[in-house]
Design brief:
mainly alpha, Growth Hormone, Chain: A, about 85% helix, 2 domains, globular, about 400 residues
């Protein structure tokens, strides 16, 4: 088997960061094509939206087990095999127009994407240590945020010029390009394989999840990212129904939302060396104050510019907190890098799904003020979690 060569460190790191936004690209790039796909597959809007759910559910579940797989069988061969299958699956979607086949392929793509993302995150832990590892781990969520930011706009242009199949052809070509980089410049970098024995694997999961700071972090990550999801799910109703603006404006607002996440992640990266709890508490206090101000301003007057100023500010705070704790979780167990990566992403994603959908089902979001209520609720949840974290750190219990 081909082993990693440190002389290709830079290009193999670049290859890793090319693949990190893959999950965002797979979910968002074809959203502008939903209407045409609905017509082609002769189904309802819900029938096409289900393709997104198929991917997200399989992705989240696979993230839980992907870590033990890549820790036991290595990163390199799994990445190559998954990329090749992923490319072929996208080309098959473009040329086999059957709805149930599409559902099945999207489930497969969720599994493959989870394996790729977990393996590449673990790869960074394999080749870097110390401050350099923290530096690159801090970049992970920043680079990941580029997927949701750019994908809808890229997909819109692809749809406009070449139709819905071009989105999947693009994903297939993207995967083949990454496969080529991985095959030529990367190799197996795992220091020591973990035996694939169920008792050992279960013990590793118990060790990771049994660490209170880590398991608590899953809920902090979920509360932070729920803010972004809540806005994404409610923005069309606020912007198009309250302000009577077009879906194009909604797209630009999604871009501003994503940029807030990106700026927050970059800010967190610059403050990597600062104490964990101090950074989190300052960001959480800012969230509470912004949400309260957003609510009271919304009761007096509101327009799109005011709304997006508050949304951008809130998402900077959320992106900052997400990046800080995400980096902590991924570097907490270098000997179980795959498992900790999988649990961090899969666990926080599943909690996020429950938290965000529960919140918008309880609060009918139709204005700036009601959106502020949701933001404040997430900030309060985070505040409570940080109080627990403070007690854990003061007691010295891990």
């Amino acid at each position: 088997m081909k082993l990693y060569n440190s002389k290709f460190e830079k290009i193999s790191t670049i290859s890793t960061f090319i693949l990190i936004p893959l999950s965002g690209l797979v979910t968002d790039v074809y959203i502008p094509s939903f209407p045409e796909m609905q017509s082609v597959f002769q189904t309802s809007a819900a029938g096409i939206q289900l393709t997104l759910s198929c991917f997200l559910i399989s992705y989240g579940i696979t993230m839980f087990v992907a870590g033990s797989v890549v820790d036991s069988f290595g990163r390199y061969r799994i990445i190559l095999g998954a990329l090749l299958l992923f490319a072929l699956s996208n080309f098959s979607i473009a040329y086999v127009h059957n709805l149930y086949f599409l559902y099945a392929i999207r489930v497969l793509q969720g599994i493959l994407t989870a394996l790729i993302v977990v393996a590449k995150r673990a790869f960074l832990v394999d080749i870097y240590t110390g401050e350099k590892l923290k530096h690159y781990m801090g970049l992970l969520s920043v680079v990941w945020s580029l997927g949701p930011i750019t994908a809808p706009f890229l997909g819109g242009y692809l749809q406009s010029y070449w139709g819905w199949t071009s989105n999947f052809i693009f994903l297939g070509v993207y995967a083949l390009f990454s496969f080529t980089l991985e095959y030529i410049f990367c190799g197996e970098a795992m220091r020591q394989a973990q035996a694939f024995r169920m008792p050992t694997i279960i013990a590793s999961y118990r060790k990771v999840l049994g660490t209170k700071e880590f398991s608590l972090g899953l809920f902090v990550l979920a509360a932070s990212y729920s803010m972004v999801l809540i806005f994404g799910m409610t923005a069309p109703f606020i912007i198009e129904e309250q302000f009577h603006l077009s879906s194009v404006v909604t797209g630009y607002c999604a871009l501003i939302s994503g940029l807030g996440l990106f700026v927050g992640g970059m800010l967190a990266k610059q403050l990597t060396s600062r104490p964990l709890l101090m950074k989190l508490r300052i960001a959480n206090f800012s969230e509470c104050m912004i949400a309260l101000l957003m609510f009271f301003v919304g009761t007096l007057f509101t327009n799109l510019y005011v709304l997006m100023l508050f949304v951008f500010s809130m998402h900077v705070c959320a992106g900052f907190m997400y990046n800080v704790y995400f980096t902590f979780c991924l570097t907490r167990f270098p000997q179980n890098a795959g498992i900790s990566s999988g649990i961090t992403s899969g666990g926080s994603y599943l909690i996020t799904s429950v938290l965000s959908y529960s919140t918008i089902s309880l609060v009918k979001v139709s204005s700036q003020s009601t959106l502020a209520i949701c933001y404040f609720a997430m900030a309060v949840v985070t505040f409570s979690l940080l109080q627990v974290l403070k007690k854990i750190r003061m007691s010295g219990v891990d």
